[in-house]
């Protein structure tokens, strides 16, 4: 019977999730946006990433801070953000944040580099009608 072992594993995962949520909350409160972005991306939370982006843009010189943070993300994280912003862009409440992130990606990534992103073709096709 492995039920008890599976329950313990599920409980451990849930506790780890709660700890990461608390850490994310603390990072946002401390305005450590790069780490907050990385953690939200690793948790696969598009809405939380959007919340971090909105918090950055509310800061004085928010666009510059957003650029600094997006540029410092790893390639896989940028790919995840690109996938997230496709969804954000379809909602008029979030399209400005999506456009700000997209502008940063287009400004700081070489076209050849962008073409190597996974899912770039479908992302562009999805972005065109709303952009």
TrEMBL record:
* Highest classification ranks of the organism: Eukaryota, Metazoa, Chordata, Craniata, Vertebrata
Q: Which gene encodes it?
A: Tbl3
Q: Which residues form the U3 small nucleolar RNA-associated protein 13 C-terminal domain?
A: 21-131
Q: For this protein, what is any one GO molecular function term?
A: U3 snoRNA binding
Q: Does the keyword Nucleus apply?
A: yes
Q: Where in the cell does this protein reside?
A: Nucleus, Nucleolus
The record's annotation in InterPro entries points to: Utp13_C (IPR013934)
Q: Name one GO biological process term.
A: endonucleolytic cleavage in 5'-ETS of tricistronic rRNA transcript (SSU-rRNA, 5.8S rRNA, LSU-rRNA)
Organism this protein belongs to: Aegithalos caudatus (Long-tailed tit)
Q: Which UniProt keywords apply?
A: Nucleus, Repeat, WD repeat
Query: What GO CC terms are in its UniProt record?
Result: 90S preribosome; small-subunit processome
Question: Could you identify this protein by its name?
Answer: TBL3 protein
Q: Does the keyword Cell wall biogenesis/degradation apply?
A: no
Recorded superkingdom: Eukaryota
């Amino acid at each position: 019977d492995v039920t008890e072992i599976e329950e313990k594993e599920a409980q451990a995962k849930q506790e780890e999730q709660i700890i990461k949520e608390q850490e994310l909350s603390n990072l946002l409160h401390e305005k450590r946006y790069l780490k907050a972005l990385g953690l939200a991306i690793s948790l696969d939370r598009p809405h939380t990433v959007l919340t971090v982006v909105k918090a950055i843009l509310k800061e004085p010189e928010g666009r510059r801070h957003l650029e600094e943070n997006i540029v410092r993300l790893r390639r896989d994280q940028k790919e995840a953000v690109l996938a997230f912003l496709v969804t954000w862009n379809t909602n008029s409440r979030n399209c400005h944040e999506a456009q700000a992130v997209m502008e940063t990606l287009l400004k700081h990534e070489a076209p050849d580099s962008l073409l190597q992103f996974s899912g770039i073709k479908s992302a562009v096709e999805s972005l065109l009608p709303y952009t």
